[in-house]
Amino acid sequence: MDFQYRVLRKLKKTADNFDVGKRREKGREQKARCGMEARYHFDAFVAIIVLTQLSLSTDRCLTAPITIYRDYAANVPVIVVEINLNHSDAYVTGTMATGGSGHSETWSSLIHRTQPLVAVTGTYFDVASKIPIGDLFIGGRLAHFGGKGSALCIDSSNRARFITVPQDRRVDWSTYDFVIRSGPRLVNAGVAQVHMRAEGFHDTALTRPTARLGVGLTKHNTLLLVSTRKAVTLQRWAQALKATGAWDAMNLDAGPCMALYVDGRTVIRPRTRLTNLMLVYDGRPEGRYARRIACQAVRSAQATLPDAVMSSIARQIANPAAPGPPQQRPRDETPVLRLESNAAIEARRELP
C-alpha cells in the first residue's frame, strides 16, 4: 500500500512538472508576442512623429495627384496618365538635351538627370540637325524657338490652355511658366478636327498609321498624357483623344521617339536619342528635395512595418485629430508599452 502511494505521488509530481513546463512555455510565448506588438506600436509611434514633423500628407507621397490606367478609347487601346493640375503639388515643365538646341541625349541619361515622376516625349525635331520644330518655354524663359504647331501653355497657378498659333509667328510667352508647341491640334473645344497645313505641317507621312502620343486637357483642368502602341491614323487618334475626355488636345512626337516614364518605371522606351521631354513632378523645385527625403522615410517605414501599422499611420496623417485637451485613458485599458511586464507578472502568478 505504501509502495502504491509513493508511485501515485511520483506520477502526480511528474504530471505537475509537465503542466508547469507547459505553463512556462505558454508564458514565454505570450511574453514574446506582447513584446513584438509593443515594438511595432513603438515603431509606428516614431514614424507618425517623423512624418508629422515633415508635414507630409498621403497625397504627396503615398497618393500623388497622378493616375495611370489602361483603357479603350474609340476602340483604340490606350495608356492614360491623368495629372490633376488643380492640386498644388502637380508641377509640369520640360527639359532639353544637354547642350540645348541641336543636341540629343539618351533616354536613360535624360531620366537620371531630371528625376521626374512622369516623363513623355515632347515636340518633334529634325533627325539630322536635332533642332525641335516647336517652341519650348521652360521655367519662365525661352529655351528654343521653332515656330510650328499649337501650344500647350501652363501658368504659375497651374491653369492650362491650348493656343493655335500661326506658323513662324513669335509669341511673348512671359505670362506662362511652361509652353510647348507641337501638333497638329486634334481636339478643339470638344470637336475632333485636324488642320495640318494651317499649323505648318506639310509632311503627309504624319497622317499614316503609326504608334501615337498626345496631350489633352479636360474641362476641369486635368492634363491627359495618352499613348498607344497600336498603329492608327491621325484622324482616328483625334477621335480616341476626344473619347478619353479631352476638351482640347494636340499630337506629340511618337513613332520610334515615343517614350513614357511613370514613377520609377519606363512604360514605353524610345528606340532613338531624344532632344526634349515633357516632365511632371509632385512639387515645385523649391520644395522637391525635402519631399523626396520625406518620401524615402515613408518607403523605409513601409519596408519594416506591417501593412496594418502603415495603414493606421496613413489614416492618422490623412485625418489628423483636431487639437484639444488630452484625453484620459479608460481605467480598464492597459498602456501598450506595458503589455510585456503585465504578461510576465501573470505568467509568474500561474507558476506553483
Q: Can you tell me the residue ranges where pLDDT is under 50 for at least 5 consecutive residues?
A: 44-63, 322-341
Radius of gyration in whole Å, from Cα? 31 Å
Biggest β-sheet: strands ordered side by side in the sheet: 1-2-13-12-14-10-11
- Specify the biggest β-sheet: 7 strands, antiparallel
So what's the overall shape?
Answer: elongated
Distance between the termini: 28 Å
Oligomer: single chain
Helix fraction by DSSP (H/I, runs of at least 4): 25-40%
The total strand number stands at 17
Mean pLDDT level? 78
Overall number of structural domains: 2
Strand content: 25-35%
SSE class: alpha+beta
- Listing every helix as H and every strand as E from the N terminus to the C terminus, the arrangement reads HHEEEHEEEEEEEEEEHEEEEHHH
Continuous helix count: 7
Explain the overall architecture.
By secondary structure, the protein is an alpha+beta fold. It folds into 2 domains: 13-57 and 289-318 and 334-350, no CATH class; 68-283, no CATH class. The protein contains 7 helices and 17 strands. A hairpin with a 4-residue loop joins strand 12 (210-217) and strand 13 (222-232).
Give a topology summary:
Elements: H1 2-53, H2 58-61, E1 66-73, E2 76-84, E3 90-96, H3 107-114, E4 118-121, E5 136-138, E6 141-144, E7 150-154, E8 160-163, E9 178-182, E10 185-188, E11 191-192, E12 210-217, E13 222-232, H4 234-243, E14 248-252, E15 260-262, E16 265-268, E17 276-282, H5 285-304, H6 307-318, H7 339-350
Antiparallel strand pairs: 1-2, 2-13, 3-17, 4-15, 4-17, 5-6, 5-9, 7-8, 7-9, 10-11, 10-14, 12-13, 12-14, 15-16
